[in-house]
């Protein structure tokens, strides 16, 4: 059995539809009885539902009864996710989520030993961007002795959901973590800009906090990891000036006002089936040497996240020999099978 928590949100609904399409046994959970009933009635299998609120710990234990995998879509994870992941590791239930909040992912190493003891895994950041980049980075590092890694996200036309906006805001506020010279250290986000060559031309990018900053060194003996997101040229200039101050402002007592204002604005994004993205990945053995690069391109980030979650769920239910502890997507996924699965969904890989 799979339990899908946060099922009535934008990403949660897409994952529910994907689990239904795959014919996997699942139930749904969330805060609103009415929205859960509506979602259940819209699905052919009429999945059972559980009312649970990540802000009310006493409502969470039923999530872990009679289930093998918990998929968590209830964010922002910095505020709401840690207790859920902790309880999953205590209960011996496999855990997967779709966040890219670096500080939250970093904190989950606290529960690594508990998950190992209870023969379960914790797999955060299994959304489209981290899953794709993590699998490709693992492949490139398997083939080289690279010490330096960078990832650049280019998503020019994607409309983001409320949940993604809030997660990005919380990550900017709390994820002041970098990885340089072989160790994690404090780093104010968005403090640098650079330029990268894409097939469409040179793109300006700013450095961002992203889960690879933790997940890559967690698995591989690298010296540095940098993650970037493309922006306009003007934001490439002003972003490193404005955003670090904005991040500091959001950590002040006034930040809650901005957060509340944004959280009350709740339009769903347009259907993302045609929203393109590119992910440029580079590894380097020594500084001053050439980078070995890979490019991943496709469409529909939210739909692809649901496809990846469904693929992960099918692997969990179809296997008894699963990894334990805090893992990354490349640990759960077989490289060849994952690439074939992604190519079947229109994703292109160029090495």
Automatic annotation (TrEMBL):
Pfam families: Sacchrp_dh_NADP. It comes from the Bacteria. Residues 3-102 form the Saccharopine dehydrogenase NADP binding domain. This is Saccharopine dehydrogenase family protein. It comes from Anaerolinea thermophila (strain DSM 14523 / JCM 11388 / NBRC 100420 / UNI-1).
